[in-house]
Amino acid sequence: MSDKFNDLLNRRGFFWQSFDAYKGMVEAGGFYDYGPLGVGLKRNIINKWLKTFVVPYMDFTIEVETPIIMPRIVFEASGHLENFTDFLVTCSKCGRKYRADHLVEDELRKREVKIKTEGLDERRLDELISQYGIKCPNCGGELGNVQRFNLLFQTTIGPYSSNLGFIRPETAQGMFIDFAKLYELSNRKLPLAVAQVGKVGRNEISPRQGLVRLREFSQMEIELFFDPLNSTCPYLDDVKDVKIRILPEDDVAKGVSAPREVGVKEAVEKGYIVNEWMGFYMGLATVFLNELGVPLDKQLFLAKLPEERAHYARAVFDQVVLTERFGWLEVSGHAYRTDYDLSRHVKYSGQDLSAYRDLQVPRVEKEMRVSPNPVKIKERYGGDAGRIIKYIYDNPDKVLRDIESTGKSVFEAFEISREMIYVSEQEKKTYRERFIPHVIEPSFGVDRLLYVTLENSFVERNGKYVLRLPPDIAPIKVAVLPLIRKDPYPAIGRRIWSMLVMNGIEAVYDDGDTIGSRYVKYDEEGVPFAVTIDDKTPMDNTVTVRDRDTTSQVRVSIDSLVSVISSKIYVRR
RNA sequence: GCGGCCGUAGUCUAGUUUGGAUCAGGACGACGGCCUUCCACGCCGUAGAUCGUGGGUUCAAAUCCCACCGGCCGCACCA
């Protein structure tokens, strides 16, 4: 299947490896171009995501677009400069590079020393290498110092080479940085969801496997900001009937491999998912995948154990899809990022990225207020009163404390006694307090979704191939096909084609070849409908509409064609 | 990054073992024409190849050697 499938995608031009003209001259794997059909399909997948995650929830969801190149400090704050790294060690003799933590673990296992190197820093790894005398496994040479290889793409901003910039490895940071503005624009309401679709870059050491591991790819992310004291999701009922397949953290830790199939609500109630918002988005993610044509039994939410999680995350589920070619493939990640990101940006930028929370019971604080009594002060010290009064205003707490403990407070040569000040007790009420919101992040990889959509749509029929793409995401909706190229059929066909595209329906016109070979061609391109002009058309203004998946045809009038096709495209399954 | 296999028109491929007369052969696709009345594979014709890149051996290299780049598979990696 895999060969025929790849052959079809290649022939029909969905996507291909970039820089083909320079093949063999440059090392630049992990980049792909989308061809005409790939572009349309990708756009439609993004649109479906927007219609699933953003449009129905515009009462609390907004969309932004932020740069893909960001200055260094952003990634100091986010922790990516420090943590988004692999450890490499280079042999000083033969120049080979190894993953340091894995090399150490492997070599020590050979000496029957069991040690976990996950999470060790480069100093500790250096120590282990010298302590056990680990040498290059290839040539036996001395190993150099362990170095971090950072997966961020680096560039400079402007003409000064010291002004470093980096391509973002996730769209998320732009949304965190903008939180204060976005919160303000949303009338300071939580929960607030911010969505962003865009490109990101990760300088992978050895990318491979086509669209599945790219150095530059597209993400669709949402950062949901909420009050950690109120994590209820009022929209959870929208997905209450959605069944998900899940392997919770406890199961993963115990080595259980059979997933549980439960409703979203049940998964939250039983504690498989620690947060309602996370459950909500995981429910939507399942619906989304269903509508892309991925059956439920090929979907799974897989919990990540603490040591597998990114530096910012408290809980993570990977949404994985069973593929023919790559096995279980991660298409989205659902992370509880806590207040990590906002707090870090507060610390590094000095800006306030907090939100307000109304207190149900106002907090009451008692405050003693001290003010001078000018009459008494003048009585005793006359012309010096002014300085004394100012002193009391500037140091009310000290004056009060002194008087309460010793009966007087001394300022230069003056004694301030109890009768020289007024003391009043005041209540201060606080109705709201500030806090840093917590974040739930569903994050989708567009390119991988495109791949699994294509793979799931591929079927063989009578020795021919069909892409059964859901009609609403198919890049071309209709092929207009005169049965033969002879007057008056082509003219009618062109008129119908024009009518369709003017109504926003993506269509192609084709009068070449035999009718059968054209059906095969457009089946391969995933075109869900074919309109055929035959000998009846000039007589009664009707055409046939052929369904790609059943090959059956219905005859409709040209006048009703646009509405018939539209209703077939957007039917909810 | 390691190991194995591989790189010939848009695509798939013959030729590589045994270097030379194949100025690289075929099929699909594309384009032009003919024929045509509903599910690829009717007929005729046309165009299309720096044989991955660079270097070496040789009178002669797609073919042998080396390096590099890329691809596939396995291992590793994939915050």
SSE diagram, text form:
Elements: H1 2-12, E1 15-17, E2 32-34, H2 36-54, E3 61-63, E4 69-71, H3 72-78, H4 80-83, E5 85-90, E6 97-99, H5 100-110, H6 122-131, E7 147-150, E8 154-156, E9 164-167, H7 172-177, H8 179-185, E10 192-201, E11 216-226, E12 243-247, H9 249-254, E13 260-263, H10 264-269, H11 276-291, E14 299-303, E15 315-323, E16 327-338, H12 340-349, E17 355-372, H13 374-381, H14 385-394, H15 396-406, E18 408-411, E19 414-417, E20 421-435, E21 438-445, H16 446-457, E22 458-461, E23 464-467, E24 478-482, H17 489-502, E25 507-509, H18 515-524, E26 529-533, H19 537-540, E27 542-547, E28 553-557, H20 561-569
Parallel strand pairs: 3-10, 12-14, 24-25, 24-26
Antiparallel strand pairs: 1-2, 4-9, 5-6, 5-7, 8-9, 10-11, 11-21, 12-13, 14-15, 15-16, 16-21, 17-20, 18-19, 22-23, 26-27, 27-28
Helix pairs in contact: 2-11, 2-16, 3-12, 13-14
The structure holds one RNA strand of 79 nucleotides.
Task: Describe this structure as you would to a colleague.
With 573 residues, the protein is α+β, with helices and mostly antiparallel strands. The chain folds into four domains: 2-77 and 155-342 and 439-445, Bira Bifunctional Protein, Domain 2 (BirA Bifunctional Protein, domain 2, 2-Layer Sandwich); 85-150, Herpes Virus-1, CATH 3.30.40; 360-427, no CATH class; 476-569, Anticodon-binding domain (Rossmann fold). Helices cover 33% and strands 29% of the residues. It has a nine-stranded mixed β-sheet with strand order 3-10-11-21-16-15-14-12-13. A hairpin with a 6-residue loop joins strand 5 and strand 6. Helix 3 (72-78) packs across helix 12 and helix 13 packs across helix 14 (385-394). The radius of gyration is 33 Å and the shape is extended. The mean pLDDT is 87. The protein binds one RNA strand of 79 nucleotides through residues 7, 10-11, 13, 17, 22-29, 79-80, 83-86, 88, 96-99, 102, 138, 151, 169, 202, 204-208, 213, 308-313, 330, 462-464, 481, 483-486, 489, 513-521, 523, 530, 532, 534-535, 544, 546, 551, 553.
